[in-house]
Design brief:
182 residues, mainly alpha, 3-stranded antiparallel beta sheet, two-stranded antiparallel sheet
Length: 182
């Protein structure tokens, strides 16, 4: 299975696309858009869009690496891009964004579908009944949960529950596939 792209690179690309579409994106909105893009990509291709993992935080799924890269934006629109830093020298360098046209199209579709929704609405969508976030949080109440990680297998199994709360087709009129993937 593919490891996925650096989440900061995908986030940078999403922010570039948001600028082209004149959509202001705050940190909390970026986290939800990154999660929805990852989930759609994962369900469609059976491979992760981003490397690493999402965690179930209070306001929905959060990718820790993307959180760290953009947390300085606070609540306002993000007007910078994440950079990489060499751990030995401290030298900063630009992160190369994905050039796959399918990824660019997906991010544009996610932005057009969800990008202008208020942060609170995106949080509500991320908290949908039986969704990956809700499943992990509920499971943590009765079992040991390490970091409340939302595994990709849980996303594949439960991502379809988001559409119930969304009420509109998530991406370009293409409904999620409801058939079990196992």
């Amino acid at each position: 299975m593919s490891r996925g792209y650096d989440p900061r690179a995908v986030a940078n690309l999403m922010l570039d696309e948001a600028d082209r579409l004149d959509i202001g994106v705050s940190h909390i909105i970026l986290q939800k858009l990154l999660y929805f893009a990852h989930g759609i990509y994962l369900v469609r291709t059976k491979t992760p869009l981003v490397s690493g993992y999402f965690e179930a935080w209070q306001y929905g799924p959060v990718h820790p690496a993307a959180y760290k890269a953009f947390k300085q934006a606070g609540r306002g629109p993000i007007d910078f891009r994440a950079v990489a830093q060499d751990p030995l020298t401290g030298e900063r360098r630009q992160i190369v964004t994905p050039e796959d046209c399918h990824v660019v199209d997906l991010l544009r579709q996610v932005l057009l579908t969800y990008g202008k929704m208020p942060a609170g609405r995106l949080v509500d969508l991320a908290h949908a009944k039986d969704s990956p976030w809700e499943y992990v949080v509920a499971k943590a109440r009765t079992e040991v949960a390490f970091g409340l990680r939302i595994q990709d297998t849980v996303i594949v199994d439960r991502f379809r529950f988001h559409k119930v709360s969304v009420g509109l087709e998530p991406v370009s009129g293409e409904p999620f596939d409801d058939t079990p993937l196992a």
